[in-house]
C-alpha cells in the first residue's frame, strides 16, 4: 500500500499538500521531494530503536539543494474496510510511532491511514453531479450531468479522519486519511504537520549523511 501511494504521483501530491502545504503551495518547477520507503530507523539514527522503521522519509528540494530542515516522516497504517464494516480501524492507530519520531527531533512527523475496501451495492450508490475537465489551466469544464456514484471511499475517508482527530492528543502531528485504489483519485482529509521547535543539529546531519550514503533508496518526485 505504501508503494502504491508513492508511485501514484497525483495521490501522493494530494497527500503531501495536506501534510506540508507550506512547501507544496510554493509553485515552482524546480521543486520536488525525495522519498525513501520503509527505512530502518537505526540506519539513520543508531540510537533510535522505536519505531523500528520510518515508513516514509520525505525530503523536499529546490533546484539541486535538499531542504533537510523540512524533512517529513510519515507513519503508515492500512485500514482494510468494507461496506459491511465501515467503522473498521487498524489494530494500532500509529500515534506512538509518529510521536516518538517527533520527540526524537524529526522536523515534522505525520500519521497516515491508507484505506482500501470493496464496493457498495449499487442500490446504495448516490446521485451526484459530475463533469469533465476541458482545460485545467483555464478552469473550463463541460456542463455537469447527473450520475449515480459509489461514495463509499469518501465516507470511509471522513470516518477515518474523524477517528484520527478524536483519538490524537498531540496537536503537532500531521494527520491524514486517504483512499488507495487503482482507479481514480479521492480527495484526502487531514491536517498539516506542525514544525518541531526542538530539532537537534545532529538529527539534520544524520538525515543528510543517510541521503549521501543511500541516495539510491530515494524516489524522485518533482512538483510538476
E-strand count:
12
Question: How much strand?
Answer: 25-35%
Give the biggest sheet: 8 strands, mixed
Overall average residue pLDDT: 92
Radius of gyration: 19 Å
Give the end-to-end Cα distance, rounded to a whole number of Å. Answer: 23 Å
The H/E string reads: HHHEHEEEHEEEEEHEEHE
Share of helix among residues? 25-40%
| Domain module tally | 1
Q: What spatial form do the alpha-carbon principal axes imply?
A: globular
User: Number of helical runs?
Assistant: 7
| Computed structural class | alpha+beta
**Poorly predicted runs of 5 or more residues:** none
Record the SSE blueprint:
Blueprint (H helix, E strand, L loop, with lengths): L1 H6 L1 H11 L1 H4 L6 E10 H4 L8 E10 L2 E2 L5 E9 L14 H10 L3 E9 L9 E5 L2 E3 L4 E2 L3 E5 L2 H16 L6 E6 L9 E3 L9 H14 L3 E5 L2
Parallel strand pairs: 4-5, 5-10
Antiparallel strand pairs: 1-2, 1-12, 2-3, 2-4, 6-9, 7-8, 10-11
What's a concise summary of this model?
This protein has 224 residues and is α+β, with helices and mostly antiparallel strands. Helices cover 29% and strands 31% of the residues. The chain has one domain (2-120, 151-222).
Amino acid at each position: 500500500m505504501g508503494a502504491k501511494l508513492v508511485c501514484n504521483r497525483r495521490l501522493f501530491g494530494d497527500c503531501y499538500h495536506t501534510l506540508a502545504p507550506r512547501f507544496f503551495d510554493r509553485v515552482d518547477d524546480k521543486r520536488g521531494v525525495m522519498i525513501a520507503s520503509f527505512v530502518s530507523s537505526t540506519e539513520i539514527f543508531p540510537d533510535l530503536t522505536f519505531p523500528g522503521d520510518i515508513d516514509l522519509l520525505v525530503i523536499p528540494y529546490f533546484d539541486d539543494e535538499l531542504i533537510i530542515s523540512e524533512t517529513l516522516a510519515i507513519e503508515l497504517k492500512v485500514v482494510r474496510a468494507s461496506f459491511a464494516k465501515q467503522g473498521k480501524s487498524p489494530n494500532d492507530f500509529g500515534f506512538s510511532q509518529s510521536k516518538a519520531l517527533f520527540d526524537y527531533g524529526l522536523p515534522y512527523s505525520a500519521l497516515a491511514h491508507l484505506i482500501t475496501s470493496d464496493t457498495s451495492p449499487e442500490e446504495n450508490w448516490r446521485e451526484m453531479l459530475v463533469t469533465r475537465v476541458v482545460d485545467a489551466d483555464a478552469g473550463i469544464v463541460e456542463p455537469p450531468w447527473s450520475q449515480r456514484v459509489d461514495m463509499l471511499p469518501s465516507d470511509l475517508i471522513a470516518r477515518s479522519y474523524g477517528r484520527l482527530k478524536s483519538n490524537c492528543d498531540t496537536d503537532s502531528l500531521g494527520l491524514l486519511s486517504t483512499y488507495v485504489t487503482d482507479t481514480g483519485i479521492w480527495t484526502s482529509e487531514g491536517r498539516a504537520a506542525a514544525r518541531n521547535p526542538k530539532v537537534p543539529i545532529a538529527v539534520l546531519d544524520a538525515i543528510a549523511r543517510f541521503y549521501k550514503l543511500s541516495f539510491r533508496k530515494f524516489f524522485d518526485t518533482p512538483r510538476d
